[in-house]
Amino acid sequence: MRRLFWVGVGVAVTVVVVRKGRQVAARYAPEAVVERAEKAAQDAGRRAETFVGAFRDEFARARERRESELTAALLADGQPDPADVRASGLRPGDLRGDRGARARHAARPDDAVDPTAQIEADEADLGYSF
Fold it and tell me: Which ranges are annotated Acidic residues under compositional bias (predicted)?
């Protein structure tokens, strides 16, 4: 009877070991490893995409905030914002009421304007230069 009991225990242990061994083998088989690697790569990609999107949004907000701080620091009291001046299409001298500048711009076409003189005139209107 004892022998029969130990044979039964041996068979049961063998069945358990074989089943668990197959599970472990299937888990570490090349197909399973590839599937787990794909899932890990997809998860990492999603996390990276979320991080990059949040970083880009935060960076854009910080850049806009800093740009407005610098613009405010560079402008003189009562001086219009350069973006507003550019958007309005005003020419150099229009803000100062310099009628001669308006007449000079009207007298010659835009392609004949000296770029250096145009830049200097723009800088004079904006009140700062780099």
Answer: 120-130
